Amino acid sequence: MTPDEKRAAIEQLEREVRSCTRCALAATRTNAVPGEGPVTAEVMFIGEAPGANEDRLGRPFVGQAGAFLDELLAAAGLRRSEVYICNVLKCRPPGNRDPLPGEIEACRDYLDRQIAIVDPLVIVTLGRYSMARFFPNQSISKIHGKARQVGTRWYVPMYHPAAALHQQSLRETIVEDFRALADVLRAARAARASRSPEPREVPASQMRLFD
After folding, report:
1. Percent of the chain, pLDDT > 70?
2. Is residue 20 part of a domain?
3. Does residue 202 sit within a domain?
4. Overall domain count for the chain
5. What is the extent of the structural domain holding 112?
6. What are the strands, taking DSSP E only, across 66-152?
7. Which long-range contacts (C-beta less than 8 Å, at least 24 apart) are formed by 55-58?
8. Which residues of the chain register pLDDT less than 70?
9. Which end of the chain is more exposed for a tag (fewer CB within 10 A), N or C?
10. Would you say 88 and 134 are in contact if contact means Cβ atoms under 8 Å apart?
11. Is position 142 within any domain?
């Protein structure tokens, strides 16, 4: 898919998300939040669901958690303008409650299409519900920051940035996990270049592989 074809496909998806009525969240949202970022991004971040600020503005990660995410991206040597950011849910659950299974299922096709269109080298999951999409029946406290290679794509489960806002003791852990992303991205580039599905060694000592 060419960059122009990708942009057209993403724009179509965004239109569908903004007018979506697949679940009851359509009745309570202010704005749907499809996601944002370059369609050629090497790294995609997938959060859980929009919050109040995101619902108001129609953009992902624009509140306090978003400000911390910007800091984390800098620690990884990345800028927001370089990455694609979206959520498992495209609409805010009332009161910021946890996503319901039916809501996750209603949005599943949108997320699948975003991944297929952007075709990132690395997918970083932020939070439990995003992690469960790719790492079912796992505990985030056990696998956070550990990368798994599947084919020529790498998946890295991370704590949600908001976790550090509620539990300051997690802040340094989250920062360290993000710092290791540079090594993951280098390994992903090498794997994609060779089109080899075989796991590749990551030279940095802090990089942890998912067992």
Report:
1. 92
2. yes
3. no
4. 1
5. 3-195
6. 84-87, 122-126, 146-150
7. 55/29, 55/30, 55/31, 55/91, 55/92, 56/30, 56/31, 57/31, 58/18, 58/30, 58/31, 58/32, 58/33
8. 196-211
9. C
10. no
11. yes
